[in-house]
Structure formats: C-alpha cells, structure tokens
Amino acid sequence: MKILIIGAGPAGMMAAITAAKAGSEVILLEKNFYKMEIKMSNKLLNKNIKFALSTHITTILNSMIVGLFLPKVLSVISFGYWQYFMFFASCLELLLLGAATGIYLKYGGKNYKNIDYDLVKTVFIISFLFEIIISVILYYLFYLKEVDYNKMYIWGFLLIGVFVINTGTFFSYLLQATNRIKENCISIFLLNIIIISLFIFMIIIQISMYYYYIAVFLFAHFIRTIVLIIYNIDVFKGKIKKIEIKRYINILKSGLYLLLADYSIILLFGIGRLFIEQSWGIEEFSKFSFSMSLVLLGVNFVNQIGLVLFPVLKKDYSSNFVNMYNKLNLNVNILLLLLPLGYFIIVWILSKWLPQYKISLFYLGILMPLAIFEAKMVLIINPFYKATRKERILLLINLTFCILGCISFFLLRIYSFNILYYLYDFLLLSFFRNFLGEFCLSKILNIRFDKVFWLLRIGMILFFLYLLNFNIIEGILIYIFVCIILIFSIRKIKYNF
C-alpha cells in the first residue's frame, strides 16, 4: 500500500514512521513541492491550450470550407452523399474495439519513455487484424444489400479509411495520453492544411463530384498517419509478445467504456439523421445535415481545449479537481451564453450565400441551443469523468439517451411526417443528457449542484427561441443587452456553478 504524506514537519515525520512500521510504502512530499507541482500543472495546461488554440484556427478554417464553400460547388444531393460518408467516417474508430482509448487511459499522464512499447505494439497489431476482418465482413454484407451505386462507392472509400484513419487515431491517442500535445497539434495542422489547400483548388476549378473530395480527405489522413507513426516510431521497435488474454481484454474493456461513452452521442445524432434519410431521402438528409454541421462547428470551436485537459487532470492531484472544475465551469458557462449570437451572423451571411439551403437555416435556429449543451459536455464534463475514472457512469448516461433517442426516432418515423419533431427531439435529448451528466459529476466531486443556474439556462434558451421571431438586427441587440446584464450579475455575485 502506498501512502502520500504532504508536509515533512514533525507531524509528517511521525505519520511516516507509523506508516512504515505498518508495512506501507511511504512517499513524503513537501508542501512547497506540492504547491510547485500544482503551479507546474497550470503552466502545462496553459501551454497545451495555446498549442490547441493555434491548431484550432486551421480546424475552424477546414470546417468553414467544408461547411460553407463545399455546398456552394456541390449540388444538394452530392453534398448529401459527402455528409453520408463523413458520418460513417466519424464512426470508424468503433472498429478498434476500444484499443486506442484503452491505451489512452492506461498511459494518461505518463512519460512517453516510460511506457511499455512491447505492450502498445502488440495491442495495435491485434486490433489492426481484428478491424480488417470486421470491416471486410461489413463491406460484403452491405454489398449484397445496397442498390444505390453512390453508397456502394462510399463504402469502398470507407474500407480504405478503416486502415488510413484508424491507424492515425491509435497513435494520436498515444500522443495525447503522454502529453505530447505539440506533436499531435502538428499532425492536425498538417492534415488541415492539406485539406484546405486542395479543397480550395478544387472549388476554384469547380469540381462538382463529391468522390474527388473524399479521395483528398483520405489522402490527407494518410499523410497525417505517416507523421504520427514517425512520432511514435519507438513503439515499432518493440517486440510482439504473447499477451495474456485477460490483460488485453482489460485494456479493451476500459477503452470500450470510454469509446462508447464518447461515440454514443455521435451515434445518436447520426442515427437520427439516417432516419431522416430513410423517411425523406438524401436531399432532405443533406439539408438537415448542413444545419447539424453548423451546430457542431460551434461545438468543435471549444473541443480542442477539452482534448488537453485530461492528461493534466490525470497527472494533477485529486484535491485540486474541485478548484479547477469551479473555475473552468464559471468561465465556460459565461462563454457559452454568447454562443447563440453566432446564429444571427450565420443566418445573415448564408441566406445570401446559399439560398438553396434556406430551410436549413430555419432548422439551425431550433438546433442552436444544442451547441451549448454539447460544448459543455466536451469541454468540461467529459474530461472530468475521464480523469476521475468514472467513464462507466458517462457511458451509462450516454447509452441511456442513445437508446431513448433510437426509440423516439423509430416512433417518429411511424407516427409523424413532420421533420420539426425530430429537431425538438434532438434538443430535448441533449438537454436532459447534459443535465444528468452535470448532476452526477457534482456528486462525484462532492460539490453543490446549482439548480438556479439550470433554471437560468432554460430561461435563456426559451428567450433565444422567442427571438427567432424578430429580425436579425433586433435579435442581436436584444440578446447582447440581456447577456451583458446577466454576465455582469454572475461576475458580481461570483456564482460558483
């Protein structure tokens, strides 16, 4: 048994002697050193956030080009097939069966030089072989069933993506776990630059076939994967060894909890879109997916910061969790209040830029509050669940709402012919998921759950939905005025939510 004793004064020394006599391994830590560790953790966090933000500029540009310029050159139907590919491409990591996330959890906060290269290489090779078998079987089953040739082409691209994207995903997780955020950001930067430059070129010369853009997307991921392999080349120097089945299963088990926790909500939104595609066709799927992509653009704006939190939280002492959570939670909640302002700007621009997606802008207004809930999940709630190793609870929450979503989508397809019900269903599911996630986290961290703020959040969302009836200028001015008053009040009373 290991015992950590902070402070090596007389009391600390007596505690150390008593523990040593009892047969425990004692670790004496000076208070000043403890404070220094916390300070270093904060510096590391700030450094990593800077790397993430600098990289995120290219990620935002990438998302803007794909979300705003690609629909301009592609037809509504072609853009629908592009969105169809992107949805399934975002789910390819599921074929790793939790191997990447298992390594992520096992080595979170560890030094890269201290990890077991043999184990990592063995887990990678085994998982690689498994995903080959699974993906080939799935492609064959789809080939027998599908009659849409465009979808058959897409599934062929996805088969290539399994190896190109998932290999990069595995080693990207290893970089994040060992806190090599700089290296991971470089790989993302390179990925985005390739996509941005080639997409702009193809848009300028008016290439209107969606499969060319898919090919460029896969090429960019291939280059990124090569870079990630180089950064983790020591792993390939390791030896493939016989691994205990129990040990391998434990890695997959812990990783699968986190993987499903993260992907269950992606599946929820994706399954809902597929229900729409099955009910109203690829064109309506395209228009709805366009709205959803704009919402997720706001979520991705803060997601890069969330990626750097876990290694620092995992390394930090648990006693500092509460302070970090309270501080981050306060600032994030204030930031997210301003997020709906983006709606009015987007509507003003896109109504002139993409008139064929006018109905999508209407969908966007209803879905905009969803960005607040999902941004809160990826930026605050998810990292703290991972750091406290409560990913099973996060999984249970996400799977619960995924199941509820599938049931509600199925019922809506049978009994409703109005797509608006799907939008409100998305919004309600995201709201209650966020509420339950934050409530359970407050119990884990043993802090007060602020019901008042949640009532305030509901009020602001209803107020925003009401402002959709106003013109753009009126909506912006009224919402800014209310936000200024609200933020000033929150800062004044130092709300601890």
General description of the model:
This protein is an all-alpha fold. It has two domains: 58-243, no CATH class; 261-497, no CATH class. It has 18 helices and two strands. It has helices at 10-21, 31-73, 76-89, 99-106, 117-145, 149-177, 181-204, 210-231, 233-236, 245-280, 282-315, 321-337, 341-353, 358-387, 391-415, 420-444, 451-467, 472-493, and strands at residues 2-6, 25-29. It has a two-stranded parallel sheet. Helix 1 (10-21) links the parallel strand 1 and strand 2. Helix 15 runs antiparallel to helix 16. It is globular.
Descriptors:
497 residues, mainly alpha, two-stranded parallel sheet, 18 helices, 2 strands, disordered N terminus
Quick overview:
It is built from 18 helices and two strands. It has 497 residues and is mostly helical.
Tell me the quaternary state. Answer: single chain
Q: Please give the alpha-carbon distance between the first and last residues.
A: 36 Å
Shape, per Cα inertia axes: globular
The topology string of helices and strands comes to: EHEHHHHHHHHHHHHHHHHH
Spans of at least 5 consecutive residues whose pLDDT stays below 50 are: 1-41
Number of distinct beta strands: 2
Q: How many domains make up the coordinates? A: 2
Strand content: under 5%
Q: From the alpha-carbon coordinates, what is the Rg to the nearest angstrom?
A: 24 Å
Residues in helices, as a percent range: over 70%
User: Order of strands in the sheet with the most strands?
Assistant: 1-2
Q: Give the structural class.
A: mainly alpha
How many alpha or pi helices?
18
Average pLDDT metric: 78
